[in-house]
Amino acid sequence: MPSLSSKVKSINCRNFINGEFIEPNHTNTFENVNPATEEVIGWVAEATKEEVDLAVQSAKKALKGPWKNFTVKERSSIIRKIGDLILENVEELAVLEATDTGKPYSLALEMDIKRSAHNFHFFADYVTSLGNESYNQDNIALHYSVTRPVGVVGMINPWNLPLLLLTWKLAPCLASGSTAVMKPAELTPMTATRLVELCKEAGVPDGVVNLVHGFGSNSAGAFISEHPDVDAITFTGETSTGTVIMKAAAPTLKKVSFELGGKNPNIIFADSDIDEVIDTTLKSSFMNQGEVCLCGSRIYVQRPVYDQFIEKFVARTKQLRVGDPFEDSTDVGAVIGKEHYEKVMKYIQIAKEEGGNILTGGDRPSHMEKGYFIEPTIVTGLTQQSRCVREEIFGPVVVVMPFDDEEEVIEYANDTHYGLGATIWTNDLRRAHRVAAQIEAGMIWVNTWYLRDLRTPFGGMKHSGIGREGGTHSFEFYCEVSNVTIKL
Ligand code: NAD
């Protein structure tokens, strides 16, 4: 089995503007830390305001360059090639992703990197299948729509699924003919830095894809959000950051697409198949250390099966192996960094103070001396009013609560300002439809979780987002549409 030290790989991360990496002057770099070892693994060049402006100007210029005249088929074949190159470099990218995030290498390989390639392959196919909307109005007039690229798109990304979420934005952006200024999260800059090289290798013209590194406030994130020549912002991250970006984008009326936080209910009715529930609930609770926006961190279990669920769920959670992301046997890696580790541990403390019972976990694993590791943690005994039930923890911590009937659990599920995802477990078909229709969430799974089809709408309601991604929903964001009316 490869050891942590032999597999870890890192690269220094430069800004990529107009098809070239920019050499930093090294007064403006920050350290990149491996969360599994706490070691500094490289440096990242923080883009200055002038560099962000250069990136935006090069993206603006590229809209009118050769890219403008690429046929749909040519764009499609470049997008497909990027996906192919990701697959050709799948292991290297997975090592970089696991090193940057602390997540298990096996998960980075299967979920982050292979699905990133799939994002490009999907939109390469999708864009060639599009037609235009048209209406013949009683032979009086013919109306048809013409789409064009929205322009320069700022892409601001989180650290939990760095390449996957970035490519989920970049693929439809390229399909539309728009151009991009991308900013990865400051904590996970490496795969985005490799991606721009692969884009160049695939034949993306200079200036179409630009990459700037840095932080949010008073750094690259803010410089993109307020830049007058950025036409649209697509952002995935915390709800509170979304409000700041929206304010910054307001004076220049940018189009926005926001994928924000969640506090997703996982509702388990007594008639469901408990063993299947447990298998999937382990994933929906602790996959990627619980650092997936769709994780079901509020688990509501109908009273007749509550004790049985708890007994089995706790036993299986105790079997999860926390540790070295590069060990094949690892189920749960390190959380993203020191600040986040402290935040999650604080919530565990709050759970105790609020009267919660920690059934398993609640601490760092004793066998990991270094690194930001947290044991998968199950809390019971809390009420709907508890902070751990209401606030997004975004770590390996779930709260389990009993309920009696359908009406009660729907009320609990909707008692949040979030509305991203939900899972319902039942073998009663009518109940599944009935409950799904009443849950205020953008994505609802019945008897499964995280099963995705890239054509379906992805996103949240309430404070979990604005707009949807996926298939047509993504594509339309990156386009402007004009209607043409011809009198017949
Ligand atoms: P974050 O909001 O702290 O940061 C996300 C990005 O925004 C980073 O690149 C950061 O540098 C940038 N940023 C921060 N402040 C900014 C500012 N003032 N102006 C411009 N940019 C700014 O989020 P995070 O901690 O990286 O990610 C975790 C959050 O993301 C969780 O809330 C999670 O639920 C959410 N998320 C949502 C989805 C979804 O699809 N809805 C997917 C993944 C993650």
Automatic annotation (TrEMBL):
In this chain the Aldehyde dehydrogenase domain maps to: 22-484
PROSITE patterns named among the record's database cross-references:
ALDEHYDE_DEHYDR_CYS, ALDEHYDE_DEHYDR_GLU
Nucleus keyword on record: no
Q: Which SUPFAM superfamilies match?
A: ALDH-like
Q: Which UniProt keywords apply?
A: NAD, Oxidoreductase
Q: What InterPro entries has UniProt attached to this entry?
A: Ald_DH/histidinol_DH (IPR016161), Ald_DH_C (IPR016163), Ald_DH_CS_CYS (IPR016160), Ald_DH_CS_GLU (IPR029510), Ald_DH_N (IPR016162), Aldehyde_DH_dom (IPR015590)
Q: Respond yes or no to whether keyword Iron-sulfur is given for this record.
A: no
What domain of life? Bacteria
Catalytic machinery residues: 259
In Gene Ontology terms, what is one molecular function of this protein? oxidoreductase activity, acting on the aldehyde or oxo group of donors, NAD or NADP as acceptor
Membrane-spanning parts: none
Assigned protein family: Belongs to the aldehyde dehydrogenase family.
Q: What is this protein called?
A: Aminomuconate-semialdehyde/2-hydroxymuconate-6-semialdehyde dehydrogenase
- Species of origin: Ureibacillus acetophenoni
